[in-house]
Design goal:
Catalyzes a trans-dehydration via an enolate intermediate. One of its GO terms (biological process) is aromatic amino acid family biosynthetic process. Pfam families: DHquinase_II. By secondary structure, the chain is α/β, with parallel strands linked by helices. The chain has a single domain, classed as Dehydroquinase, class II (Rossmann fold), CATH 3.40.50. It has five helices and five strands. Helix 3 packs parallel to helix 4. The chain starts with a strand and ends in a 5-residue tail after the last helix. 35% of the residues are buried. Bound molecules: 1,3,4-trihydroxy-5-OXO-cyclohexanecarboxylic acid. The site of 1,3,4-trihydroxy-5-OXO-cyclohexanecarboxylic acid has 10 residues, from loops.
Length: 147
């Protein structure tokens, strides 16, 4: 089975963007780590990033054909995009929400996720490692493990 890691707006700026919050590693580092983890754990992993709401929605729709589950970091869309929420609600594969930072320890507007009620679950504050946790949780839920 294949799993998609979908990163939203401003996450292409990882490493440069607020490194005190998001760390000094880049999106390329993250994607490389996840591809390597996928190989080691025998989990098929693909990665995609976009700054555009519509492109993320298209990717969610298209993923249904190809993937068993999605790890989604919607960036700031987390807090207000009903369109992304509807896309998540409208596909039949599970979506695990991930945040690098602990959104509940930050500004008030980050405490609310419009995605969380339609997601399979949420991981917040585990850094890049949270993506691995999310992949493992999805594999566990969808029977994707070869072992
Ligand atoms: C984020 C948290 C969001 O509040 C923020 O807008 C982001 C990144 C995170 O990974 O911690 O862009 O999703």
């Amino acid at each position: 089975k294949q799993y998609l890691v979908l990163n939203g707006p401003n996450l292409n700026r990882l490493g440069k963007r607020e490194p005190d919050i998001y760390g000094s590693k880049t999106l390329t580092d993250l994607e490389r780590e996840l591809l390597q983890f996928g190989e080691e754990a025998e989990i098929g992993v693909s990665c995609f990033q976009s700054n555009h709401e519509g492109d993320l929605i298209d990717a969610l729709h298209e993923a249904e054909e190809q993937y068993a589950g999605i790890v989604l970091n919607p960036g700031a869309f987390t807090h207000y995009s009903y369109a992304i929420r509807d896309a998540v609600a409208g596909i039949s594969i599970p979506v695990m929400e991930v945040h690098i930072s602990n959104v509940y320890a930050r500004e008030e507007f980050r405490h609310h996720s419009v995605i969380a009620p339609v997601a399979a679950g949420q991981i917040s504050g585990a850094g890049f490692f949270g993506y691995r946790l999310a992949l493992l949780a999805l594999v566990n839920q969808t029977g994707g493990s070869k072992h």
